[in-house]
Amino acid sequence: MATTVPSHDWLVDLRREFHRYPEPGWCEFWTTDRIVAECEALGVDDVQYGPDVLDADERDGLPDEATLDEWLERARERGADPDRLERMAGGFTGAIATIEGGDGPTVALRVDIDALPQQEPAEDSHAPAAGGFRSENEGYMHACGHDAHITIGLGVLRALVEADLPGTVKVLFQPAEELIGGARAMVESGQIDDVDTLLAVHVGLDYGTGEVVAGIEGLLAVSQFNATYTGAPAHAGGRPNQGKNAVQALAAAIQGLYGIPRHEDGATRVNAGRVEGGTASNIIPESASLEGEVRGDSTALMEYMREHANRVLRAAGDMHDCEVDVERAGQAPTALTDDAVVDVVEAVAGDVQGVTDVHRHGTLGGSEDASLLMRHVQERGGQATFVCAGTDHPTGHHTATFDVDEPTLGIGVDVLAGAIERLASR
To answer: How many structural domains are present in the chain?
Structure first.
């Protein structure tokens, strides 16, 4: 068996191209088209996308039709293949590329592909702006390294496509991770039911360039929700008593959410991430909405927070005589790594050029819907791990000035391609 190492320039050019055209969850039409085109150019015979790789009813956080249509049209204007776009219409983004080998095990690598609703700075002090690959989709950017993840996934395919593998390799290009929305749809599609070993990857996570973590743990269980309060409008000066103030109910809900008691069994989190309501200073607001989330060290702790959050949200509505509609959005459990897979990644990483430190385990301190994929494989008798390829970045994840140190790309490809090759040969 022999791998073909992708050049640094090829990886950098690809990553910068994806960085220029970020797309939010379920709207990654151009991104998916570009992934499929690159897979085909690499000689990957089996590339599936569209409804084949997702369960239509399990797509959490799906935007409204107008938003989906807008992003589809953007992709069309950017030159995406019309036939591919037709298959993706309605929010069927993401792809699965498969390299068929012999009768050996099936190994999957999961990479996420969506971006964040964040404005990227135009100052020359920000490397993508200075280098000419700043986001061209204003108000959106790859602020969490998913552009690097896509590139690593494609790099692994390039490294392995001509290898004489005894087993099968799948690369899952998963949409809507930031919405905790894509993994469940991919799981329920049945596409990973045959996977024996699954690896997920993330860059950064406060580990520097050259550091590799073979098994990231501490994935917080998460549940996201949307709450909408409906009251009654009135003149704020003339008849304030006739109104039912939805913003007042929302404010009480936010106060209550942050007042949920912490738990003795472990860490818990709550966040009111997006709030809006009202139309004018002289009108009692009749509607207000909140997008929020709760997290926990364990699935049980997350459920504790969710139960209390639901109670708080409904009580705030009752307190101010407003109706409230609470909808669950994305949700993901915790996940654990398997020592046998960590062993392989750890051993391979130690021999990769550019790797300075190999950590057997590390913590995420956040949530990832890769946990749904990992647990599905493990519950069917398989094994999984979550790998980190460290990267020096100027600021933290989900900040406007986040960037990827590009030597990380080659390190990530070499570690993962080497580990997958060994795992497919077991």
So the answer is: 2
Share of the chain above pLDDT 70, in %: 99
pLDDT, one tens digit per residue, over 351-368 is: 999 999 999 999 887 889
> Does some domain include residue 1?
no
Mean pLDDT of 67-93: 98
Instruction: Please check whether residue 345 lies inside any domain of the structure.
Output: yes
Is 3 inside any structural domain? no
Query: Mean of the per-residue pLDDT values for the chain?
Result: 96
* Domain span at 385: 8-219+335-423
- Answer yes or no: do 286 and 137 share one domain: no
Band (3; pLDDT cuts 50, 70, 90): low
What's the predicted TM-score (pTM) here?
Answer: 0.91
Asked if 127 and 229 sit in the same domain, the reply is no
- Is the domain of 109 the same as that of 255? no
> 387 is written with which tokens?
């790998």
* Whole-number pLDDT of residue 218: 81
Q: Is 99 a member of any domain?
A: yes
pLDDT tens-digit readout, 116-125? 999 999 999 9
